[in-house]
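Shipment paperwork, digital attachment
Item: protein structure file
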Amino acid sequence: MPDMHEQDLTPPADALFKKLPASETGVDFKNTLQEDWNINYVLYPYLYNSGGVGVIDVNNDGMQDLFFTSTVGSCKLYLNKGGFHFEEIASKAGVEAKEGIKTGISVADVNGDGWQDIYLCRTGFGNGIPMRKLLFINNKDNTFTEKAHEYGLDADGPTTSATFFDYDLDGDLDVFLVNHPVDFASVNNVDLKPNADGTVSRNTSREDTPESNRLLRNDKFVFHDVTVGAGLLDVGFSLSAIATDVNEDGYPDLIVGNDYVEPDGVYINNKNGTFTDRQPSVIRHMSSNSMGSDAADINNDGLTDFFVLDMLSEDFKVQKARASNARPEYYFPMIQYGYGHQEIRNSMQLNNGNGTYSEIGCLAGIFQTDWSWGCLFDDFDHDGFQDLFVTNGIYRDINNADYINFTSDSINKLHPDGIDAQNMPDINSFLNLIPQFKLLNYAYRNKGDLTFENASVKWGLAAKTYSNGLAYADLDTDGDMDLVVNNIGDEAFVYKNTAVEAKKGNWLQIKLKGTPGNGSALGAKARITAGGQIFYKELQTARGFMSSVEPILHFGLGAVNKIDRLEVQFPEGKVLVQENVPVNQRLILSVEQAKPGKLSPLTPPQTFMTEVAAPAFKHTEDAFLDFNRESLIPWRMSIPGPHLATADVNGDGLEDVFVGGATKQAGALFLQKPGGAFSPTSAGTWETDKDFEDVGCVFADIDLDGDQDLVVASGGNTAAANSTAYQSRIYKNDGKGNFTRSGGLPSLRDPVGAISVRDYASDGDPDLFLGGWCVPGSYPISAAGFVLNNDGKGNFTDVTATVAPAFAKAGIVYDLQWSDLNGDKQPELIIAAEWMPIQVFEYKNGQFQDATGNYGLENLKGFWRSVLAADFDGDGDMDLIGGNFGLNSRYRASDAEPLRMYAKDFDKNGSMDAIMTEMQYGHELTMAYRDILVKQLPFVKKKFLRYTNYSNATVTDIFAASDLKEATQFSCNEVRSMYFENQGGKFIASPLPNEAQTSPIYAQLALDLNQDGRVDWMGAGNDLGQQVETGSIDAGNGLILMSGPSKGFKPVNARNSGFWANRQARRMVSLKSSDGTVRVLVSNNNGPIQCFSVKGR
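Attachment content:
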């Protein structure tokens, strides 16, 4: 098996960055870890977190100097002499700080004298190792004096980094210390409390210990600990903090990244000296092992987004060889206890503009960068978009599963009381048993469409090493940002950026002069408006990982050659505005030039939808967890609902709505009242049938008595196969909206995925089409679909074998729609199913025939969740939109590298095994981690005792070729939601914009929202039922695509439309209220119904 890192790392001649050797720069710092029995990884597992980089102007000459943290050795300070030449002066400057375990470096003018000082964090684990922080005050002569105690900054506790920010907006800098416990034996322990209802949940009460994060308030340049009063006590293993204005109220908030079990914190500043953790309402899921983090506006909408690193490797061999908590028995209880949805991958949180974020790391292509420490956003290539650089590498791969399960386990058995200098004199004889390999750093170019491309080699940044802290600075004052990296065991990297000399794009730098207590104006915001674009930044220097960047606002502007308007808001509530600003210069702006005020509001959204009162129904799923029965299925099949159906059931001229229930929950019928309110009918009829899972519902006059009856399809995956729980049902209407369950359907013991009604035979009565679901316990084998013929009295006969034999094998069906696609005045049946193409069935000569190939749709096999037909391009024929899985998951598929599924009872125990594979570097690999596969197929453990062997195995190494050949095979080559344009009866496929790829699209609707005569599109989705290794796909907020006069769609996000459908949407319907207003109902899995009123309609 090839190693993905076995590639040519030679940078091209025109690489954006040039790595400068120490022989040229004089920066010869090397963070060397000398482990012994006093300090080593065994005693302190965070030892390999290494150290940071501090950018500081020591002598106020305008040239940025460099400070490097040495974990256990002497720190170094390099004075910038110009031309990328540096002089090392740490010893003379008095800042070597030889003692203790040094971590983060923060640079700030702590005493307000106009000269930058050095604040050095230390950590430890007891054992006499000093942990008090060090403050080196600048003596203005290239020397420093340590005065932490004098300033109240000598806090004693294990600290990773410090963030200086003015949280109370009083004009001076306070500081937040990122700390962690030292009892690493408790890293995976949960702290639970009993509840009154007999359940248990996460205990959020906190004790005041030095190991908690700390907030120190600046009171006239003496700092006092106000952590307890501020509400910031924490028990997490915190590794990073971002100070940013999350809710745009002018006050800086804190985003804290926690390693291990404790969820990340989003502490909202209450503007009274206190903070409240609002994480559950701000972000929907987070990284599990949160490490370094950074914030930037990645899509130029004027809002700050943020990024958090985790430990998921892009290399499948590394990924499968590591121990992982991605197991259902761990993941789902943690959610139940209140620890949130924690996914083992990087998180890119996109600001929604309403105080919430959507996580799009998979869509962005930056979700797996291995054991990553630091990240920095900046526009490195000056094209106008914020790029990303990530440092990578763990000095010893301490999570290697073979090391944990075999090497470490054997040592523990040999030395049950632990290893020490007596039984193992040389610590290295143990440490060298831990796998060790260097990893690549990552550079990503922002493509400007919510996605990034890997530019590591192209930009000259793809070095293999153990990198940790990083910082940027314009070291040669030429207008672009250079990079500096702290490495374990290798010389520090100094990268010269060539964007300016290569004329990549225009730029602007802004140097701010703030108040005496906040000389660099940390927390300031700057917005540039130019050429119809927005460029936005907040000034913070505690960035990267344990590092401090140059205190400057740097903008790449692309082709913009003049700035229409520049606004700078200082933290104290003053604003400075300049217009017609030339580009390619460094501005120096002072708070003394500013006037009271704040940034002008962004263009207010012209919303055309308003959420209004909806039918009072909350869908509630039962506790069944599919993975306990079928550990290898990719997603839960037991949570397909709820669905909606509308009709005027009581003859009052108003459309009413039925919503299906979950297993053990009755559905409900709501009558619409004048004014748009909804009133529930008697629950008795529906309560009787609450044991069914309602997966589809349709109104139709099935007995031809002039009123609308109801047919409800049963499905899901909870009951066993061939169960009466899957019987679909008829409810007849008495003409007044009162329903009674009736017979008329044949015995149906297969779960249904979707239901539709159509008088296919044109005999005057409605017939039923039931799309099959999966066979319970046998995913991905599909249950049969049925066509049921109506005798005109509401009695149905199964005619599938004669009328639609191919429909019986249409796959796992999610949606059925009817539309005339070929202009013959006869509607075709359109089917959305997974592991299938969008299918089209034509009714000819008394039989439905699969005509998919006639429409050019046969080649795109996807995980289709919905399909919608409408004339989107206004040319008179019907186009299609297929709601697919989207791009915001680990799944990628193409013709060259499809996803595959093999279904067979591989171990001959009477149950179906679903083996999903992916292609990487020309090899077909199982997607399941070893432990998940072993849970269902124990023979794999015998065949692959060690994880390393399994990580190198292809699917044919694990399974016999004959078994794979005999298996039922499925494939998928497209996961994007697609627009299919009808061109003369053939459909031409193109992907929907990336904004529509953030989640699976389960619900679609076509409406002319802006009354321009063109049909617009509404879509929504999200899915929390994924296999744990995939994780939550929940970034969807509801999206509108406006159809324009020319081809293509214009995305309108929820902030600008008012269509906030950010739950697990399953269906959408429109209806009119008594005043003629159009309303859109959205049903949500495990959540309430939503209702939106369309303005002007």
